[in-house]
Amino acid sequence: MSMQSMSAALEKKIRSFLQGPRKGETYELRNGLVSQYKHERKDAIQRVIQAMTIGKDVSSLFPDVLKNIATYDLEQKKLVYLYLMNYAKTHPELCILAVNTFVQDTEDPNPLVRALAIRTMGCIRVARMVDYIEIPLSRTLKDDNPYVRKTAAIGVAKLFDLNPEICIELGFLDDLKALIKDSNPMVVANALNALYEIKDMNNDPELSIFEINEEIIKNLLLCLNECTEWGRITILTTLNDYSTTDQEESTHIIDRVIPQLQHANPSVVLSSIKVILQHLPNIPVTAQRQSILRKLSAPLVSLVSSSIPEAQYVGLKNIRILLEKYPQILSKELRVFFIKYSDPLYLKLEKLEIMIRLANDNNSALLLGELKEYSMEIEPVLVTKAINCVGSVAIQLPGSVIKSINLLINLIDERGGELIVNDSIVVLTNILRRYPGKNDLITLIIPVIANHIDELNTPESLSSYVYLLGEYPKYFSHLSDKLKFLIDGFLEFDSSLQLLSLTTIVKINLVSENNAQYSNYLQTILELATKDCENADVRDKAYIYWRLLSSSSSSSAKEKIILAKLPPIKTTISTFNPVVLEALVNELSTLSSVYHKPSFTFIDPNAYSSLQTEDGKKRLKTSKSNIEDLTKLAKSEIINNSKNENLLDFDDDEEGLNDNGNTNGGSASLLDELNDLFSAPAVPQKDSQAAASANGGAGSINDILNLFNTNQPPPAQSAAFNQDFSNLNVSTPSPSPSIPNTGTRSSKPSEDLLDLF
Amino acid sequence: MGQAFSFAGIFSKLWGVQKEIRILILGLDGAGKTTVLYRLQLGEVVTTKPTIGFNVETLKYKNLTLNIWDLGGQTSIRPYWRCYYSNTAAIIFVVDSTDKDRIDIACKELHTMLKEEELQDSALLVFANKQDQAGAMTAAEVSQALNLTDLKDRSWSIVASSAIKGEGLTEGLDWLMDVIKDEQL
User: Fold this and answer.
1) By the number of CB atoms within 10 A of the CB, which of A177, A539, A657, B54 ranks highest?
2) CB of B45 less than 8 A from some CB of A
3) B76 and chain A: CB distance < 8 Å anywhere?
4) Which of B9, B67, B80 sits opposite A97 (nearest CB)?
5) Which residues of chain A are under the pLDDT cut of 70?
6) Cβ separation of A99 and B79 shorter than 8 Å?
7) Interface of chain A against chain B, CB under 8 Å?
8) C-alpha span between A710 and A580 (Å, rounded)
């Protein structure tokens, strides 16, 4: 009974296909498709495909197009196959009508038809097809013609995607592994590619997809030169994944891969570089390693000479990773990265990133000349970046400081304008922070800043100015007026500027004691900050100062705390943390090298298993291991930071006060804290990916996540300012908006401080 | 556009392009449809597997171009036969004469099919196939089992055949050609 009703339903459905409208385009096309004349049928098929490619829905013609699949006309066959691939999903039950033709076509004398048939059959993502694909697929995998074999190899991956169990059960995986040893390089490359696809799709941990051994590697190296570019990339990826400690083997691989550096395809070039770098450490002789590294510079340059800006951009992003690992690799190639007038903005900015990393004493004059040109450009982002780069050069190369400063001062004088003045003053302050207390620099910089105070209007530039005011008060004339300006405007200031104004006035009071006017200012600002200010951090800081100043401790103790010198800025060029850098070098020429993020941070590990129901446990496992990775990254980041004395905002108070440089203790307690943070949310989270769970788990984790931001190239000036603030002698909790504050954190250091008294 | 097609038809006749005559070979699975088709086309016996879908071959016979469709006969595919009914000049219904158990099913399928509007003008040729095997029903017995005498307003014929030996096929086809020629002219 149910069978009958089912077939009745099916009958109705088929009938509705056949009874289309009796006029209109579809009706005409249908008539053409079933015409009694061959040429009319072909003409109709062409018109159907035409309609399909411009996006018209011609799926209702499916049964009629399908009738034309069996033909000796190759052109017509291709068109029908194309149609079939496109609309198979809309009529899964009708696809079975094509099976017989597919099977016959895989026996066709023409290899093109055989390959076409197995390719199309694999592309029909209909579950019922699986039942019929065994015979044609195993036949084409053993075909005499390599073109058919290489197409069939991909077919195995398609079948695996559709039904992994059947694919393994019918032994296709083993057939595919056998193809790696095929005599034809194209087949080898495609078989490898299919195996990689399968590896990505596979979610059965028991299943061993393939193992690379010495013998396979030898075969791959032989194939390398005869493959298409896609094949080469696949083989190079395999070579990169293959780890050996054997020196001879590594040398052999490198020797074989070096010719690929000349390839026209940037991806081949990048993949080759990746392989070479992977096997480079196995070469014991330093001179040999150096000579191999030198061979990489020309291919890298070729990446930037591409005519496509997008390709150049990808090249530049990859070069930046390589430069960090091997800074010397392009030391003579600065000119290549000069900005061209026609470059799009994103390319210009990325080129600047590379240029400042290539700066050395030999090319600094040339580089500064270029940077000056760029800072005269129209695009504000480029101008800002160029000015920041001048600062980076000055900070990197002590020999170029005066030149850089003069360049900026000239720029302010000659060009002027809000943007240039504001940005230049931030940069000049940073330069002074790199070379603190140098009289010649101070006398050069301070007057310029003093002349342009009225033009400062960004919180960053005002902060810079106020900081300098507190640090070098005696170089400013009319100091009293300037301080009055700070007090008058205090309540309207940005909170970061409020904090700095407070510090500056306290500092000035301490150095120039017994000045009635200044102590008056001090009194006013402390009252303003404690009574009228809405920001808790500002209030806290004011209270701390107040208590400190009114305490009975000797003035030298107070000076020690309040006037403690900041550690000099080491660099304004952002760097990757070593773990991230390793990951990125290993993922060169992939999307992660463009994002500058390791792939696991943006690829959902469950992307392929979302349809499966039974692997909930596995998912949990992967998300846990992800958290472990994340923790590892965060830990190494913290250790790294404390080594660099680039201290985080929440532990520098301990440093400043204890004064015994207990760096290890500080970071160790931080690590404990971090462990707590990670262990807490990891347990309750069930299925969401690691990043999400970390974000959602507790707001405080945001802080940790923000640590990673420092890996990314932030605008150099804000990075510098993070340092500025975080290193201020008394704790200034999280001045930068990029590091969200948690209440517990900010109050903790203050409590610590209060305990001292 | 329909008119344009018919104009094209006239032109192609003038230029000697042959109009194809569509013939369907139907029947239950295992009746020997594919063997019949390739016996007619190639003149030899091919080894066949169950047809999932269809075979189609073009064949010149007595100055006519025949477009012969052999549709799979499995239960799951039978519903799709109707996709192929339009513009069909004739139906060749192949019956396994030794399969007495399923002759009723064959009868039912045949009569359901013949009720289709699109097939009202099509001629019917029944092959009582597998006559080479022992215990095969004769053409008359098959005719009776299929209730062929009930058919009105339709040219039909039944021929005893053996696709393996090639017997009866040409006779059947000759009859069909005569009917088609009559109807075409």
Assistant:
1) B54
2) no
3) yes
4) B80
5) 1-9, 12-22, 513-514, 606-631, 634-757
6) no
7) 7, 10-11, 14-15, 17-18, 28, 31-32, 34-40, 63-64, 66-67, 70, 94, 96-101, 103-104, 132
8) 12
- Please give the backbone phi and psi of residue A587, each rounded to the nearest 5 degrees, phi first: -110, 30
pLDDT at residue A664 in the model: 45
* Phi-psi map region of A492: left, alpha, beta (phi>0 left; psi -120 to 50 alpha): alpha
Quote the minimal CA–CA distance from B122 to chain A in Å.
15
CA–CA separation, B132 and B163 (whole Å):
9
End-to-end CA distance of chain A: 91
pTM: 0.70
Output the DSSP codes for A635-657.
HHHHHHHHHTT---TTTHHHHHH
Predicted ipTM beyond 0.90: no
CA distance B105 to chain A (A): 14
What pLDDT was estimated at residue A13?
67
Beta bridge partners of B23: B68, B90
CA dist A201 → A108, A130, A605, B156, B163 (Å): 32, 17, 10, 57, 49
Active-site hit among B74, B120, B133, B184: B74
CA dihedral of residues A410, A415, A419, A420 (deg, nearest 10): -10
Distance CA A656, CA A566 (A): 10
Beta-carbon contacts of residue A354 (< 8 Å; ≥ 6 apart): A316, A319, A320, A323, A330, A337
Contact A655, A663 (CB under 8 A): yes
Residue among B52, B56, B80 minimizing CB distance to A94: B80
Is there a contact between B80 and A36 if contact means CB atoms under 8 Å apart?
no
Q: What is the pLDDT of residues A744-753, one digit of tens each?
A: 344 444 444 4
B48 to chain A, any CB pair closer than 8 A? The answer is no
User: What Å distances lie between residue A354 and A259, A443, A484, B82, B127, CA to CA?
Assistant: 26, 32, 44, 68, 82
Closest CB to B54: pick one of A14, A28, A100. A100
Burial of A289 (0-12, 13-18, 19+ CB in 10 A): middle
A52-102 tens-digit pLDDT: 999 888 888 888 898 888 888 899 999 999 999 999 888 888 888 889 999
Which tokens sit at B6? Answer: 């018919």
B74 in active site: yes
3-class SS of residue A100: helix
